[in-house]
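step 3/5: co-fold with Phenylacetyl coenzyme A
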Amino acid sequence: APTGELDSFERTIAADQRIEPRDAMPEDYRRTLVRQIAQHAHSEIIGMQPEGAWLTSAPSLRRKAVLTAKVQDEAGHGIYLYSACETLGVDRADLTQMLVDGRQKYSSIFNYPASSYADVGTIGWLVDGAAICNQVPLCRTSYGPYARAMIRVCKEESFHQRQGYELLQTMMRGTDEQRAMVQESVDRWWWPSLMMFGPPDAESAHTARSMAWGIKRHTNDELRQKFVDMTVPQADALGVTLPDRSLAWDSATGHYRFGQPDWDELARVIKGDGPCNAERVARRRAAHEDGAWVREAAAAFAARGGRVG
Ligand code: FAQ
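step 4/5: write tokens
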């Protein structure tokens, strides 16, 4: 874009106003947004798999209805986000191709198995809880279409978090066996949930640039701290123990102190070497290929002006 137009970009960012699709923007700003929004969209779509696996064995009609609604919401979030991304001049079909070819990432968290029914509750409580901490500030991100998508997504994520917490509360009021299932599940999901916020600030490649552009509003470590502060009292109320012996209230800072996740594990999972990476991508690829006839039929229908026969 001509220099004058980029001055207007800098002014908009400095005034903390939104950049819209037709505005001039630096190529790196556009590329950073495509990377983050596409990764976010892919996470929603891949994120349907761990809980989706429990739909057919939910223990009651009510639990099944709640879980179905949640998993459908995730598909909707993926669609809002792909649409936001398309306003930056990319095509959803290409993004999906990059996902199934392993050329674009999705959140590390969805590469862990949902191996017990308690995981449905724990994912809602911890994974959606972490997602909310990360996404509420993104409602004020500098790119208009992404910010607007986040407002709606966050409302739905609050329901997701509550349904997970309520499921765990119910199990905690149940038998010793159910309580043990909840504790075992929380033990497995706690550290991966902390990893969702990304590497520590000192090792985060993109944070400084993305903060300067108003894409990110807080650093990875700030949001991780916020999540811990929010979650520890919830764990106490639930009656579960978080698997971190160094967790302690620090009255001097007004925050909880906590231990460091295994950052080598995060690096391995991001590189493709987590417990379920291959399975998740294979499943997504198969669903995409199985859906080819629907896309072809829709394109043929559109090509004849939407007329049947
Ligand atoms: N997993 O320099 P940074 C959900 C990558 S919630 C995988 O710190 P950045 C809801 C990063 O991309 C989950 N990769 O990067 C739900 C970069 O790689 P690149 C989705 C990660 O972007 C709940 C490199 O490491 N939410 O789906 C991860 O400034 C339940 C360096 O990292 C979002 O995507 C990770 N955990 O900060 C659905 C939120 N962390 O691209 C279903 C939006 C880092 O250079 C069920 N995204 N990487 O090759 C963000 O806020 C940011 O992108 C961060 C990373 C904070 C994730």
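step 5/5: annotate
Residues 35-36, 39-40, 43-44, 47, 74, 105, 107-108, 123, 127-128, 131, 134, 195-199, 204-207, 210, 216, 220, 270 surround Phenylacetyl coenzyme A (CB under 6 Å).
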